[in-house]
Amino acid sequence: MPNSHATREPVVAAFDLDGTLTEGGSVFRWLRWIAGARRTYGATLRLAIPLIGGALRSGRTADNAKERLFLRLLAGRLESDVVEESRAFILEHLGGRLRPKTLARLRWHLEAGHDVVIVSASPEMYVRVVAEQLGAHGALGTRLAADPLGHLTGGYLGRNCRGSEKMRRLNDWIAERQYPGEPVIYAYGNSRGDRRLMRLATHPFNAGKLGRIGSLRRYPRLTTETPTTA
Prior knowledge:
9 helices; Rossmann fold; 5-stranded parallel sheet; alpha/beta; 7 strands; two-stranded antiparallel sheet
């Protein structure tokens, strides 16, 4: 539906999830929650070489390795059951892992009347719950394919939501909002998977902890100060 920004410049704030809004990653913890620790560690060990290669090379190599892990652990599970279990998982996960500095910035955007969207490589089925809990207007994540009977295939529906896919999905989300003009875009990320997203932004911010040695070191660091422009 059309957005309500009729008389002022529209503003969109896009936040990564893992390592940006929360401490550390969520996907491996989610798999342990869904499939059990023994099966998850076993599958990870069997796929150690492609997973390590993906971590080192990133890009399509990382996407394929992640999907192979999903295939081993999720294929055949009833999607509705996984959605329900994922909600329980992420509510517990958020309990002690939200990063105060980034959360304060998200709340500032909401109070300023900006449209907030979470854009993550994590499964969209629980990224949606994060958005709901934090009051964000949208949730974009990796979508999982299901067969006609409602069982997960273990594969992606589309592409893993990282890199250029994050940028594409955000552009599509913005287009669906039907803004009267090009919005000002704030983006918050912490890793190389966010670089395309940062390039799209009017105001990109590095929310990572590695500072000058991080992959987003060229971008301004997120501080506790709120921006002077909105």
